[in-house]
Predict the structure.
Amino acid sequence: MKKTRYGILGAAAAALIFAFASGPAMAQDEDFGGLPPGEGQELVFYSCQGCHSLAIVESSNFSRRVWDEILDWMVDSQGMAPLPDDMRATVMDYLVEHYGYED
Ligand code: HEC
């Protein structure tokens, strides 16, 4: 229970301090959970970390075809909101480039 002692105010204060301390130059490394920079970084961060750790993504190495199936599975069976086609394409390219390979 130690973590919850300071509650939401503590978390907000910590976030505020962090925002001041880190500044824009560092924001990228810190803000996206270790995802490498690139087009799609932010999109993957916001689309994928709501339900599980990004570590699950970052430890993956799948072919494009398998990533496609995983995204379908995330939507069909895990309750992920489907991404519009253009966003999905960006996410796919990012995942294949950093955590996978072309078929
Ligand atoms: C609505 C919830 C939800 C969202 C959003 C979501 N996932 Fe998942 N994901 C799950 C669940 C549930 C599992 C399986 C349970 C677990 O291992 O935590 C899972 C498992 C996975 C796995 C492991 C699959 C395997 O068989 O090894 C990968 C990879 C993955 N997700 C990638 C992603 C990516 C990439 C995104 C963003 C595009 C994403 N997830 C977004 C719910 C979600």
Remarks:
- The helical segments are 7-31, 41-48, 55-58, 64-78, 85-99.
